[in-house]
Design goal:
By secondary structure, this protein is an alpha+beta fold. It contains 4 helices and 4 strands.
Length: 95
């Protein structure tokens, strides 16, 4: 695998009336992600223009770290718990 740093921006949009619940679910994933060996940066933001929109801004050491993150139990739980609260599938951009 490449040692190229990977930047990820992931957009989550809550169903109407579910934004605060989604925020709690997403926040639970921040600390364990930051503790992963390959994580360089991991922050969650809520849009000031649309309170239903959340963005993860992440930087990972390399592609292998991203793969490991995706297989972690905390990430799997986050995605399963978020799914019923989402208006649409998350938009994930890797740079």
């Amino acid at each position: 695998m490449s040692d190229k740093t990977i930047l990820i921006v992931a957009k989550f949009t809550a169903r109407p009336g579910k934004a605060d619940e989604l925020k709690k679910v997403l926040n639970h994933g921040v600390k364990p992600a930051r503790e992963e060996a390959g994580c360089l940066h991991y922050d969650l933001y809520r849009s000031v223009e649309d309170g239903n929109v959340f963005l993860f801004h992440e930087t990972w050491r390399n592609a292998e770290a991203v793969e490991i993150h995706g297989s972690q139990p905390h990430f799997q739980t986050l995605m399963a718990d978020a799914e019923p609260l989402l208006a649409r599938a998350p938009e994930v951009h890797k740079i």
